[in-house]
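G., the chain you wanted modeled:
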Amino acid sequence: AQAVLCRLRKTANIEDEVAGWTDPAAKPAGRRTSTDSRGSSSNESLRAVQTQGGDVANGNALKPDDDDEVRLAGNALHVDSANVTIFNIFRFAQYRKQWLLVLLLQFGQQLSGINTVFYYSSSVLEKMFSSYISSVLTMMIGVLNVLATASGALIVDRFGRRPLLFSSMASMAVSVVLLGLGLGLKINSLAAVSLYLVVASFAPGYGPVPFLLGTELFDIRASAAGGSWALAANWIGTFIVATAFLPLQNLIGEWVFSIFVVALITCGITFYFYIPETKGRTIEEISQYFK
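Predicted structure as tokens:
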């Protein structure tokens, strides 16, 4: 009992509280030996707790790897009340699937090629229009992105995360194919229209939904760490795509857009089988899905 109390109080200084539990003077003489034996056993348990979780005798909090709170199974951790951080979230068995899915959601978002549209849309439009008109049309791509994102925020709770995500990815795959064909076949009008189609497909679904799912797949204990990993994966993906796009385009031409299409299809299939619908579901229900 004293060992459990130490864990609850997070300190070993419980002697005053324990002293009031029993009154030895009120016990029959024949039972004092039994009481003393239990007291001795409790003291031994207390000493074991003091040496197990760190320097508990100095009032330090118990370590999160206490046997009752964290159990090691290979390299996996199972938590009851341990702190979940960006450095150990992938070690917790109950968070590992969500962690991998969030990384793929964010990294796959950048592998869809959306930032190549934002980065190089002006150069595509300048082939057909003057610098002034192409600048205006490029600005309109940004406006379209804002409006389409706002529309996604309005309908995501009505239709659900999965329908919005998959419809966005499917229409984006078609739009990227059209963009590659327009650029490869020198059909400038098709390329220009495809730029707007890519943005209109991306913004309502594949743009915001990965960030939304990043907060809903984890419980409150792991949401901060999971969100940090998600943001890091997004920026790493942005850097890789922005750095590699032009060298790849110079190497294989407009076939570079086939990489984005393959990434969209691969990620879409993975998400279809592993990402649950979180609309209207509690944290407990979502956590149960991954067990």
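The first strand starts at residue 70 and ends at 73.

Shout if anything looks off.
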